[in-house]
Write a structure and sequence with these properties.
The structure is a single chain. The chain is mainly alpha-helical and 93 residues long. It has one domain. Helices cover 46% and strands 0% of the residues. It is built from 5 helices and no strands. The radius of gyration is 14 Å and the shape is globular. The chain starts with a helix and ends in a 15-residue tail after the last helix.
Length: 93
């Protein structure tokens, strides 16, 4: 939760008016953690991975978790909501 909030606040510090929704993820963070840790499955040789649809306003939380797992870079995190040049992360993936 802290990382999601920090990412949104940093984006606002770098470029006034970018905004971001913090409360959407905060209110559902535990549900997503349980899903990621116990229920959602990726592709294997034996089964197809789960297709999960997320509400767009929770993207900071999903990005924060992906960053901690090593799936996103510092540069991508620094460019949250600055995806025009291809180096950033969309606010609505």
């Amino acid at each position: 939760r802290w990382n999601a909030m920090a990412m949104v606040m940093r984006a606002n510090d770098n470029d006034d008016g970018l905004g971001g929704h913090i409360a959407s993820f905060s209110s559902s963070a535990t549900l997503y953690d349980v899903g990621f840790n116990y229920f959602f499955r990726g592709n294997t040789d034996q089964q197809e991975g789960d297709l999960i649809f997320f509400q767009g306003h929770i993207s900071p939380g999903i990005y924060a978790r992906s960053y901690l797992e090593g799936r996103l870079t510092d540069e991508q995190m620094d460019n949250f909501r600055r995806e025009v040049d291809g180096n950033g992360l969309s606010s609505y993936p």
